[in-house]
Amino acid sequence: MKSKLALVLFLAWSTTYSIAQAPNSNHKLTEDFINFFVGSWTGDGEFSNGKKISADLTFKMSLDSSWISYEHKDKLPNRYKALSMWGVDMLNGQFVAYTFDNFQGYRKFASDGWKDGKLILTTNEYYPQRGLMFQHFIYEKLSDKCFKMTYETSKDGIAWKLGDYLVFNKI
Question: Per residue in 87-101, pLDDT tens?
Answer without folding.
Answer: 999 889 999 999 999
